[in-house]
Amino acid sequence: MAKAYGKYPNVIYEIWNEPLNRHDWSTVIKPYHQAIIPKIRAHDPNNIIVCGTQSWSQDVDKAAQDPLNFDNIAYSLHFYAATHKQSLRGKATDALDKGIALMVTEWGTSQANGGGKLDYKETEEWLDFLDKNSLSWCNWSVADLNETSVALKPGASATGNWMLDDLSPSGTLVREQLRNKSNRLINELKQVRRPDVIYVPTPYEVVDKMLELAEVKKDDLLYDLGCGDGRIVVAAAKKYGCKAVGYDIDPKRVKESLENVKKNNVADLVTIEQKDIFKLDISQANVITLYLLPSLNVRLIPQLEKLKPGSRVVSHDFDMKGVTPDKVVKATSGSSHVEHTIYLWTTPLKKEKVGDKEADSDESK
Fold first, then answer.
1. Average pLDDT of every residue of the chain
2. DSSP letter string over 198-222?
3. What is the pTM of this model?
4. Helix axis angle, 231-240 relative to 204-213, nearest 10°?
5. 358 in catalytic set
6. Distance between CA atoms of 243 and 246, rounded to whole angstroms?
7. Which of 275, 235, 280, 277 is nearest to 254 (CA)?
8. pLDDT in tens, 295-318
9. Among the four given CATH numbers 3.40.50.300, 3.20.20.80, 3.40.190.10, 3.40.50.800, the one describing domain 2-140
10. In this predicted model, what pLDDT tens digit does every residue of 269-280 receive, in sequence order?
11. Exactly one of 106, 122, 147, 256 is catalytic; which is it?
12. Is-catalytic flag, 18?
């Protein structure tokens, strides 16, 4: 599956659905995940892998006490509102407080067997909890069985085109939730325009290699364009003592970066700003770090050409069409054992030759 679909950015793996309560996390479930994850990462270094947890994916607190050492993973949390209540939310809170990511890959409005009453009160409590903690979820299930948790009434069409009368009470509730969230997201996007970038953090081993390749020095000024959680600018300040500025358009990433700066006591050297990177004057910097898609790297070329001679531009995994890199090196993430490519350019940028002409840096022409 990873070999066939890992090149697409909209893939989520869940590699053990609902381990039983007799499957111990540390001796049975965790070793299974440790064996499977590298097999996926050999073909797909970035997409989210959700790891099943003990007791039908409820004992997330046990996973948090003995977490996996891989990048970009989450742990599955399952609940049924009429059965699993505050005690399970307490386990989830404990796990989140210990720093692991959770994804609710199955939940229902009913009892755990899919039947019983539709518990509106506990469903509301859970949905508020998920919203408060920014947890993604999948509701169980699109089926027409004679069960409380299903979205469709018995006899509903198997091919879609359902009317409101085809929905069960649970289906009606979940539909309303989805529609409300969709409208809220649209309003948020109208307020904050986000570029076509999927946020995936750069592994720390790759961060170190990028800074080493750029030959960062104490008197450098480093700009990280699309700074995510701020790990590159923080590392530059801590390891090399240089000034660094991180830019991101997403307020959530900016908040994470500011927290990271504060935690590492580098506020005297690091600044974080919420800005559109394509509208920046970056000419004052002499080190630029990137982890953007190739098309976005190309869009930055007119800005990069205004850098002072001898400035260094370093990109994780993605090249810059039409411009020849000075160096290309490999780096391996210690946690996932995935090999990454790092590109270095120095200014003035060296345009590739196409026939007798230089390569056009603007893909839109």
1. 90
2. ---PPPHHHHHHHHHHTT--TT-EE
3. 0.55
4. 60
5. no
6. 10
7. 275
8. 889 999 999 999 999 999 999 988
9. 3.20.20.80
10. 999 999 999 999
11. 106
12. yes
